Amino acid sequence: MLATVFCVAVALVKNVLASHQQPLLIDPKDLHACSILEFQLPGRVSFRDSDVYKFQSESYWATNQGELSAFCHTAPRDSQELQQIMLLISQTGTFFAVKSGGHSVVANTSNVVDGIVVDLEHLNHVTVRPDLGFVDVGVGARWNDVYQKLEDTDYGVVGARAGSVGVGGYLLGGGLSPYSGVAGWACDNIVLLEVVLANGTLLEVDHGHHPDLFMALKGAGSNFGVVSRARLQLVSAHDRFDVTFIHYKAEHTMQAVHAISEYTDVANEDSGAAVSISVGGLYDGRRPTVSAVLSHPRSVLLSKVLAPFFGVGHHLVSHKRMSQLELAMMYDAMNPRGFRQHRATTTIRNDVDSLTDIVQDYVSKLHPNMSCFGDEDGQGGLLIQPLTKSHLQTGRWTNPNMLGLQEEASPLLLLSVEARHSDLHDDELIRPLISEFIYAADRNATERNASHDFRYLNYASADQFPFEHVRRDHKLWSEVQATKQKYDPHNISGKQMRHPFKIQPYS
């Protein structure tokens, strides 16, 4: 009965939303800045009525990001052109956004309403140096480009699971990977970054040069400048990933949940193992399905820490050996572009009772309510990923990052709820449902003393502040604010970028 009432309410609200359209505005300073850029960098600027602009807008993973209408896009061919662009943006005061791969779902992160999009698509070189143990990557490259270059070598790199993800945003948000148990976050494996500051200054930063900025960039997104190149440490990979996919029977959902909690407790005994569990599926009124992806650089079946996943009732198991490129292409197939996408995240301590309650809330409330929208493309899920001790503490003494987790004594569970659909008018209904679910999950975890204030930047929704965990560490937060004041003293990124994930300098 309650579900029926909810569905009727959804239909009424959708009719109201369909009658309201947002006007398209033009700010004179945007026109001025775009016109100057077109004069200074011929062939590097595209306007709303051009085919190039349309192509660039359609390259975003989420259509709700791509449909935002910047006044122009500019695509530098090298770091020097990027310097010119950033200097002009700072001088004219125009709003801007930076696009690497365009995989973010939060409005104004990689696109912007009016203003200028700085599209790094041409900064996409990949140069492998196995003799020196690193790969140089332009941040406009996609991870598939990187994996393709490494395909015939004995090396891998700590990069995104999905190959269509852009290098830049993924790295600056932290970066989860099948290698994370061994090598930590992707940002822990950065050797050097080339960055253009908001005033157009070009810097190379590493442990020995501007170490304060180097640390701050690893987890802070675009708050400190525009990164144009990253040098990444290579990981020895003499064989393919051993990958197992398990699809569980619906009645064994909670047993699978117990399995991932059990694994999280002992994961340090085999840091090569990697696990994620997804609870979800189509919004078609049926009970969500449960699946697990297990991977290991040697053998899934011989890893004792992965044994609990095979003791749960299942109806399908498949097993493959896959290269990093093949694995990334598989994840791309499971997460296609061209839909409206929404996401939010939370983190809890490894408390099986709290995790069970959260999953039950998803299965019994959020997923059924999503079925009311009647969107045949509608699909979503709750993704559960362990953050193991070896993952969190990598680089604790030698390679600090800005995620604020390197002192954690116990493993954590990273949760993200995701939804995709096609109808524009469902956006304003789906987002509150996701926020309500996350709020309930946080409340549940708090009641069980299992809450944690880390919010992963790359999964955060617009109404979440991913730096809250860092802000509560007064010493670290003071260092971050001082770094912001030093390298962006006029707070250009804070004033001229419209995304919600901002770090402000000292006031």
Summarize the structure.
The chain is an alpha+beta fold. It has 17 helices and 18 strands.
Overall domain count = 3
| Overall 3D form | globular
Helix content, binned percent:
25-40%
- Could you tell me the radius of gyration in angstroms? 22 Å
Do you know the CATH topology of the largest domain?
Answer: Vanillyl-alcohol Oxidase, Chain A, domain 3
Strand count, sense and closure of the main sheet?
A: 8 strands, antiparallel
* Known CATH architecture of the largest domain: 3-Layer(aba) Sandwich
Q: Strand pairing plus helix content: what structural class?
A: alpha+beta
Report the total helices. 17
Rounded to the nearest angstrom, the distance between the terminal CA atoms is: 52 Å
Strand content: 15-25%
State the strand order across the main sheet: 14-11-13-12-16-17-15-18
Task: Kindly provide the name of the CATH class of the largest domain.
Answer: Alpha Beta
Q: Give the strand tally.
A: 18
Overall pLDDT: 91
Uncertain spans: 8-24
Protein name: FAD-binding PCMH-type domain-containing protein
Keywords: FAD, Flavoprotein, Oxidoreductase, Signal
Domain FAD-binding PCMH-type: 64-237
Signal peptide: 1-18
List keywords for this structure.
507 residues; 34% helix; alpha+beta; Vanillyl-alcohol Oxidase, Chain A, domain 3; six-stranded antiparallel sheet; eight-stranded antiparallel sheet; globular; 3 domains; Uridine Diphospho-n-acetylenolpyruvylglucosamine Reductase, domain 2; Uridine Diphospho-n-acetylenolpyruvylglucosamine Reductase, domain 3
Q: Helices and strands in order, then pairings?
A:
Elements: H1 2-18, H2 28-40, E1 45-47, H3 51-57, H4 63-66, E2 72-74, H5 79-92, E3 96-99, E4 116-119, E5 126-129, E6 134-138, H6 143-150, E7 155-157, H7 167-173, H8 180-183, E8 190-196, E9 202-205, H9 211-217, E10 226-236, E11 241-248, H10 253-266, E12 274-282, E13 289-296, E14 314-322, H11 324-334, E15 340-349, H12 352-370, E16 379-387, H13 389-393, E17 412-421, H14 427-447, E18 451-452, H15 468-471, H16 474-487, H17 492-496
Parallel strand pairs: 2-4, 3-4
Antiparallel strand pairs: 1-2, 5-6, 6-10, 7-10, 8-9, 8-10, 11-13, 11-14, 12-13, 12-16, 15-17, 15-18, 16-17
Helix pairs in contact: 2-5, 6-11, 10-12, 12-14
